[in-house]
Backbone:
């Protein structure tokens, strides 16, 4: 799972803008675009974004993990 793409997807589904998210996480809008391109993200940042968007990205990872067959 590419977390940056998933964050962008959830943000879009909620009808929120990049500028809105940047304001919520107290960063420049360019940094949000950088997050969208990241395949991974630190857990503290992901927790903040999960809370702000009211979406459990950790559950998404868990579902993706459980779907992997070895």
Residues:
């Amino acid at each position: 799972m590419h977390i940056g793409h998933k964050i962008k997807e959830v943000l879009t589904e909620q009808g929120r803008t990049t500028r809105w998210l940047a304001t919520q996480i107290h960063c420049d809008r360019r940094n949000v675009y950088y997050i969208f391109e990241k395949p991974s993200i630190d857990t503290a940042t992901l927790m903040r974004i999960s809370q702000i968007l009211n979406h459990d990205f950790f559950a998404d990872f868990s579902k993706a993990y459980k779907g992997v067959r070895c």
User: Anything to note?
Assistant: The chain has a mean pLDDT of 93.
